[in-house]
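Regression check, iron/sulfur cluster case 590:
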Amino acid sequence: MGADVARAIRGLPILSGSASQAKHGEMITVGGSSHTHATTPVEGPDSFARRAQDAVIASGRKLSKEEQAKRDKNGLDLWDEIEARSRANEYPKGTDVFLQKFHGLFYVAPAQDSYMCRLRIPGGQIRSWQARGLAELADRSAAGHVDVTTRANLQIREIPANQAMEILYGLRELEIVSLGSGSDNIRNCTASCLSGIDATELIETLPLAKRMHHCILNHREMYGLPRKFNIAFDGGGKISALDDTNDIGFHAVRIHQDNATSAFPAGVYFQLTLGGITGHKDFARYTGVLLRPDECIEVAAAIVRVFVRTGDRTDRKKARLKYVLDELGFDQFIGHVESQLGRELGRMDADFLDVTGGEDRTAHVGFHPQRQEGLHYLGVVLPVGRITSSQLRTLAEIADRYGCGELRLTVWQNVILPGIQESNIPAVQEAILAAGLNYQANAFQAGLIACTGSAGCKFAASDTKRNAMEIASLLESRFELDQPINIHLTGCHHSCAQHYIGDIGLLACKVENGDDMVDGYHVHLGGGWGTNQAIARLIFESIAMNEIPDLLSAIIGGYLQRREPGESFTSFAARHTVEQLRQISLTPTS
Ligand code: SF4
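Current build output:
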């Protein structure tokens, strides 16, 4: 527009539209969705991704379908199109389905003829007034419930086409954004769910997750990734943020005086770990780079910029950060990050770091004392992460009346209510049970994680959420556990429920049953994270769902009968071979 004004003053013809001809015959996008189809910014944040695509084309290779779609039309500039579609009561078609996920709107046909909207809740923290607002939005424009995800996030489901804008406007009024929650973007930034209230943590991580969130929102090049990307901050406390399953994991550690150096005085730092992607059977590994807390955001942003340049844009299966690291190795990759930053990063051998390993697997459910004297937090079980709008209102009410007006969503698909006075515990217990919710630590439901499944996701081979509930209620009727056993059900290889880190991991498949194909699962045992890091091993393949509860009963019965005193399921599985675990599962227990 400025160029056009200058031309008008000089008596020259005004160029058509809002795009101006630039040098070398390229077009500059000035903004607005109507000019995004065939224009390329010469400079500016969008050029990060554009140059990476140019390099692929110049090398004679072909961009993947999704990369071509992003090249043709920037997903960030779809606001007007989404509004027009919403007004016309229509869903997107073709690659627009993929591009609209930049705004958090997932058209989930054929599983459901509706939208799912995924939000961004950094660190999983929402205020009671936001929870009430979300309940109202879910009632008014969706199915009247929300789902907590394994990124401590929320999804609103069954949104009709003509309600899409109501959802987007409604979220903004609640000071919640959904930008970049889907497609090839950095997903919800997670933190330790007890940040600030855990006496055992080394450092609060919620502020870091929030800062990272705002860094992403305010840097357009952060939306130019070749594939999705996860970032987590773990404060070293008693509930893991599962940072080792993220592309970038920041894990708090301490350097004691004995190991202090001039570069690293005694204190708390973050280990930089990279390349976690458990669906591809890899955990994030320590790079050797140790960071002060105030360096983390800048370094994460530099890593993302390097990934934008170096990630594979031809093959979606090889487009995650892990594959860049496999190709370059950590040293070369960190060298690129240092060039991006314009400085060297400090390194410290892991042997000199005190990594806290005090994780308590019962700490995310039930009442527990906080760091603040006299106060407790309550972990509430949300079976497979689903919560009705009326339950959400109840939790908001409890948070206001007995807590500090705050709810914390967790990567374990449950919710924590902090700030409860000891004297109010009985009243809170009563209110939770009256809402049809639970706070028992050892129920199978407490360790139940399920992805959306075939009821709402086109990739799923089985109805994971429904099957999870069937399995948990049957196992609860047969066993009383003295320590948690996590069961993770994932609908497809995308591994949203991280079946490879579950004590029991079920990966959905279709199984032949006469002329029919029925829901079934591949059964994996012995996964873990953090200090018990392990990829669950495949024990049985293609088991029909109707046989799963009995098979799992045999496995759990065998574990309870043969374990050493106090032995966890993870340790029990780890000291047996696949064949031994098969035999244990097939041997009747008394
Ligand atoms: Fe859908 Fe697969 Fe993710 Fe489940 S794991 S929600 S089926 S993409």
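Comparison notes: Residues 11-39 have pLDDT under 50 and may be disordered. The pocket of iron/sulfur cluster is lined by residues 451-453, 457, 459-460, 490-492, 494-496 (CB under 6 Å). No diff flagged against the previous build.
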